[in-house]
Design a protein that fits this description.
Elements lengths: L6 H21 L4 H14 L4 H11 L1 H4 L1 H10 L7 H21 L4 H32 L3 H29 L2 H19 L4 H4 L13 H9 L4 H12 L6 H10 L5 H12 L1 H11 L5 H12 L12 H28 L6 H29 L4 H14 L1 H5 L18 H8 L10
Length: 436
């Protein structure tokens, strides 16, 4: 068997990714904080309607839909000789400059569009490096499940804080000061990029899972990589949730006449309620084969959004948020675990950006479809949205059978006797005797 890194080193890897995750998610233009604040800038200050807001969200995210390009660049280009840290440093500095420029100019739809598209591009390079590095370390240390839990739990904290505080920002903080705050967060990421802990970077790029070939071979290898397709499709379907974004925002505000803060409160409780079942996944992933855990997680998440159909007041909205979150936690960790396990050697950035692009395309595309469905009927439009979400989640189950069995055959921390030799065979290094 391959030698596993000692627990202390694995613990430090989780700690390091926890710091990166918090800063990247807090400053991300796709994160809940900035997304909600911008949506209220459009709704309240620029007087956009629901269709305009959902379309704006969809268009500015175009760089994310083609994020595999940024992932492929990450797998090929080594800025400043710093590998992934070079991406963190360069593109965090560029993002700071854009946020400061947005703070200087008068608020307008044009300014928001140009600034956010630029931030989307820069953030894709950062995400490609961050997610590619996570996937690489997860494969080298057989810890995809545990990294998935750290990723989703820590990644939810900025979104929880942003969801809860976005209403306060909208009501009390100017748009300029909001963008200055975002610039300060991104500056912290630039500082972290200067740190090179040996436990993370010491041998990360000289292992078989990190090896690449030439462009033509890599493209062919990516397209022939069977685990890619079900992993991307399952993530797409899990994030395709027509009704849980713009329709919910307008349902709470326009139909139920709740204040803008309630949409933020809903999202904060929703995300916080994921955490108990995310932590449960962290406990189970080292004790159960992933195949069994994945089936269990997806069956539980099928009815996740049904509580939305019973929202008729402020209190019922908050109760529904908590229940929806609890039902979705296991699946949220499982889809990220699956994505990292499914990465081909040396193309972790490309694969993870395919997953990320499909994820946001599903979110924004589902938002547009949900807005259309919501507008069909003043009385039942939101109920139709909930029905659509449930049907999509149910259809995830047959896709699980498409996943190559060897990818999900083992629990977290177990050496896979089928996958490990294949990784060595696809690399340019000879097979180590202990991996045979």
């Amino acid at each position: 068997m391959l030698e596993v890194k000692p627990p202390v080193k694995i613990g430090f890897i989780l700690f390091y990714f926890g710091i990166l995750t918090f800063l990247i998610y807090l400053a991300s233009p796709t994160g809940f904080f900035l997304d909600i604040v911008v949506s209220y800038m459009l709704k309240n200050q620029l007087h956009s309607n629901a269709a305009d807001v959902s379309l704006f969200r969809f268009i500015i995210a175009i760089p994310v839909y083609i994020a595999f390009i940024f992932g492929f660049i990450r797998d090929s280009w080594n800025p400043f000789g710093m590998r992934d840290r070079g991406y963190f440093l360069l593109f965090s500095i560029l993002s700071v400059s854009v946020f400061l420029a947005m703070a200087k100019f008068q608020l307008s739809a044009t300014m928001l569009f140009i600034g956010l598209v630029a931030l989307m591009v820069f953030s894709r390079f950062i995400s490609a490096a961050y997610q590619g590095l996570m996937a690489l370390l997860s494969q080298e240390n057989m810890m995809a499940g545990r990294i998935a839990v750290i990723w989703t739990v820590i990644g939810s904290l900025p979104d929880i804080a942003g969801s809860w505080g976005s209403g306060i920002f909208v009501q009390n903080i100017s748009s300029a000061h909001t963008f200055i705050f975002m610039a300060s967060v991104m500056s912290l990421l630039a500082l972290v990029a200067c740190w090179k802990p040996r436990a993370v970077y010491g041998h990360a790029y000289d292992q078989p899972a990190a090896q690449r070939s030439n462009l033509a071979v890599d493209v062919k290898r990516l397209l022939r990589h069977k685990p890619l397709y079900p992993a991307v499709l399952i993530m797409f379907m899990f994030q395709f949730s027509p009704g849980s974004n713009t329709p919910l925002q307008f349902y709470l505000g326009t139909t139920l006449h709740l204040s803008d803060s309630y949409y933020g409160y809903f999202n904060a409780i929703f995300l916080a309620s994921f955490i108990p079942t995310l932590l449960l996944y962290g406990y189970l992933c080292t004790r159960m084969k992933m195949a069994k855990l994945l089936w269990m997680a997806m069956i539980i998440t099928v009815p996740q959004m049904i509580p939305l159909a019973f929202i008729h007041s402020a209190s019922s909205a908050l109760w529904a948020a908590g229940l929806c979150g609890l039902l979705g936690g296991l699946a949220a960790a499982a889809v990220f675990d699956l994505a990292m396990r499914s990465c081909p050697p040396g193309l972790q950035g490309t694969m993870m950006m395919l997953v990320a692009g499909g994820s946001l395309l599903a979110t924004r595309g589902g938002d547009i479809l949900g807005t259309y469905i919501y507008g069909i009927s003043p009385d039942n439009g939101f109920l139709y949205c909930v029905t659509a979400i449930t049907i999509v989640y149910l259809l995830i189950l047959p896709v699980i059978a498409w996943i190559p069995k060897e990818i999900i055959a083992k629990a977290d921390g177990e050496v896979n006797p089928i996958v490990v030799p294949e990784v060595w065979a696809q690399s340019n290094l000879p097979l180590h005797p202990s991996a045979a």
